[in-house]
Fold this sequence. Notes:
46% of the residues lie in helices and 0% in strands. By secondary structure, it is mostly helical. It has a domain at 1-64. Helix 1 packs across helix 3. It starts with 9 loop residues before the first helix and ends in a 36-residue tail after the last helix. The model has no long low-confidence stretch (mean pLDDT 81).
Amino acid sequence: xxxxxxxxxxxxxxxxxxxxxxxxxxxxxxxxxxxxxxxxxxxxxxxxxxxxxxxxxxxxxxxxxxxxxxxxxxxxxxxxxxxxxxxxxxxxxxxxxxxxxxxxxxxxxxxxxxxxxxxxxxxxxxxx
Length: 128
């Protein structure tokens, strides 16, 4: 495998490898995300990082921080985060063919005696 791949970002390198006609038939069952992680591990190894450091870096790059402000990201990083969210959604989605699939689930939520009220949803006669 050419070392040219390791000088690029992992996403672009994975796309090039997956779309390469020589490798396409072997990699059609491998997700792009898996190839990106593989390139991340190889790049970390070649740059002298320990396995633990590389794994932590890949974990940070492939998980979504719920406190992160996505409005501050550039288009490329936002697209990457959306891709991660889409993949997680697809993985957790229940489909009709799944054995645990139940159509039209009704859930009763427990009524807490101390419901928190919000100021915006209280009706007032003075407002109308």
